[in-house]
Amino acid sequence: MQAKPVIKFDNVSKTYPNGAKGLKDINLEIMPGEFVVVVGLSGAGKSTLMRAVNRLHDITAGDIQIDGQSITQAKGKQLLEIRRNIGMIFQNFNLVKRATVLKNVLTGRVGYYPTWKMVFGLFSKGDKQRAYNALQQVELADKVYARADELSGGQQQRVSIARALTQEPKIILADEPVASLDPQTTKHVMDDLKRINQELGITVLINLHSVELAQTYGTRIIGIRDGEKVFDGPVASADEATISAIYSGGEEANG
Amino acid sequence: MAELPKKPFAWQKWVLGVVMVVGLIISAQATGTNLPMFFQNFGQFTIIFQQMLSPDWSYTAYVVDPLIETIKMAILGTTIGSVLAFPYALLVARNIVTNRWVVGIFRFILNVIRTIPDLLLAAIFVAIVGIGPVAGVITLAIFTFGMVGKLFYEAVETIDEGPIEAIKAAGAGKLEIIRFAVIPQVSNYFVSYVLYAFEINVRASTVLGYLGAGGIGVFLQRALSQFRYDRVGLMVLVIFVVVLVIDYVSGKLREALI
């Protein structure tokens, strides 16, 4: 039996209200357990592609399916339930800085509760343990009650990985997760993501600036230029000519 | 080498300056401002001031209750106004409610409320609910609502949008976003603004009594109309001390919060 793609793009386009093209007719299939790196110039549409997957950005044409279910057509609760299965990591970590590490990690579980329980912040004991387990996986168990802004950049990013893990997602989207980190912490964060991918079988779709990192960690590379998919293949097949083609002649576009 | 060119003559600034000075003179004449007259009455001021400098200490016992009433009014008014202002502020914050019309209309209402002077509100509510502290509480509640509502929504609009995006990506709905991404970022500001409003309300409520809206202002007005400047002096002193203490404590608390 053939495995079904966990993310599937069908002729996906995105045009911004001002007429700028974010994505142009993208077709894409990502299989469970892949570690896919998206590369391209700034503004080529990498971030837009990421945010199209969990519909933080709406697309203007085409259809995106998550695990066989269309997120493009999902409404209300359905959309929230699909999103629950997709963890996301951001360049700027996006933690609530004044809140404790535990509280930040727990917010990954929000999608599993009815609203009234959340208004009172009633997380179950099991979920608190789950959050703590996730923190142990990123080696930050000792920081559980620290305030998020007391942590270094690399640690904050690992907290946000723990938050994504607490969601128990099938997919993790990482939007430039190491762009604001130094080389050493970059390695730490990337190793964590790789381990999550291999040990937990979570599909990882990640945006990276650095081709070198893409080649070290990825199993597959997707090149985006000007909103178009210009390359898609295993890391080994991305030679220097291909890479320079991805990075050439990029005109500024949105996203 | 070319010589440094002369600074161009800023004739606009000069014209503006002249217009302002002429405007000041014209408006002073139009309203019949008379500076010498101001100083003519200065003698009377020193007489009253002398009387105020020898306060009627025996009156202290009578002042305590109305003073407590004033503070009670301030606490109640601040609380009611702030509790109402909180959900309202979320409704008019552009990063929470994206519908331009909703934000526009409710913001307009808030602006209108804020433009009504508190003394006018007090006069209106004394007429509606009668003389007494209830009029004062309602006045302070509305006044607080207008002020704190604006401070609240401005705080909400300055938050880091990152956590909102993150929690949205985790499958959270609107209320959860507010609960976990917005409130933790602004709660300290909210508490600080409420304290600030309380400081202002303690001061304002002393004056409100003047219009019959309860508290120590009623006594102040009575003493003034009886020309009992010794009692006025005492009350001014007591109010001064109380306001100073409340401002100091609340100021320290706010410093600790932010």
UniProtKB/TrEMBL annotation, chain A:
GO terms for cellular component: membrane. Transmembrane segments: none annotated. Keywords: ATP-binding, Cell membrane, Membrane, Nucleotide-binding, Phosphonate transport, Translocase, Transport. SMART domains: AAA (SM00382). GO terms for molecular function: ABC-type phosphonate transporter activity; ATP binding; ATP hydrolysis activity. Residues 7-251 form the ABC transporter domain. This is ABC superfamily ATP binding cassette transporter, ABC protein. The lineage of its organism: Bacteria, Bacillati, Bacillota, Bacilli, Lactobacillales.
Automatic annotation (TrEMBL), chain B:
GO terms for molecular function: ABC-type phosphonate transporter activity. Residues 67-250 form the ABC transmembrane type-1 domain. It is found in: Cell membrane. Signal peptide: none annotated. The keyword Ubl conjugation does not apply. CDD domains: TM_PBP2. Gene3D superfamilies: MetI-like. PROSITE patterns: ABC_TM1. It is a multi-pass membrane protein. Its main location: membrane. The chain crosses the membrane at residues 73-97, 118-143, 200-220, 232-250. The keyword Ion transport does not apply. InterPro entries: MetI-like, MetI-like_sf, PhnE/PtxC. One of its GO terms (cellular component) is plasma membrane. SUPFAM superfamilies: MetI-like. Keywords: Cell membrane, Membrane, Transmembrane, Transmembrane helix, Transport. Belongs to the binding-protein-dependent transport system permease family. This is ABC superfamily ATP binding cassette transporter, membrane protein. It comes from Lacticaseibacillus brantae DSM 23927. The lineage of its organism: Bacteria, Bacillati, Bacillota, Bacilli, Lactobacillales.
